[in-house]
Write a structure and sequence with these properties.
alpha/beta, 2 domains, 2 helices
Length: 137
């Protein structure tokens, strides 16, 4: 069987603990377009903040009762499962400098991961890792 895709990007759901902190990071600092909010019909209720990053929809979910479990520490090799997501940008150095100036935790400073590939990684307000990458060429 082959997937019969109906859009060119995935939607990513991130459960958050603090709406304002997450919106400040994703909307204000990274510049994602806040398309709006909607009630979250599962998990005891809450709010889904919908932000657009290119063709991808980032769904920040703030439940009324915040789950007690937190992301596993240890960076990318710290556990199995979803560990980070990548945003392709032309200005990795600028993005990382803005994050650092805003007090965002730097997980991996700007560096060349392999010839022609520059990366930097930060932690969002809940400790989820966001990677920025630029490919030469």
């Amino acid at each position: 069987m082959e997937l019969q895709l109906t859009q060119t990007a995935i939607d990513l759901g991130i459960v958050i603990t603090d709406s304002e902190a997450s919106l400040t990071f994703y909307r204000d600092l990274l510049g994602m377009n806040h398309e709006g909010d909607m009630p979250m019909p599962i998990g005891g209720g809450g709010t889904m903040h919908r932000l657009r990053c290119g063709d991808t929809l980032i769904k920040l979910v703030k439940f009324n009762d915040v789950p007690s479990n937190r992301p596993m520490g240890g960076g990318i090799p710290g556990a199995t499962g979803y560990r980070y997501f990548t945003i392709h940008v032309a200005n990795v150095e600028d993005v990382m400098a803005n994050c650092e100036a805003a007090g965002v935790k730097i997980v991996i400073p700007v560096r060349e991961a392999r010839p022609g590939v520059t990366i930097g990684m930060v932690a969002d307000p809940d400790g989820n890792i966001v990677e920025f990458v630029r490919y030469a060429g």
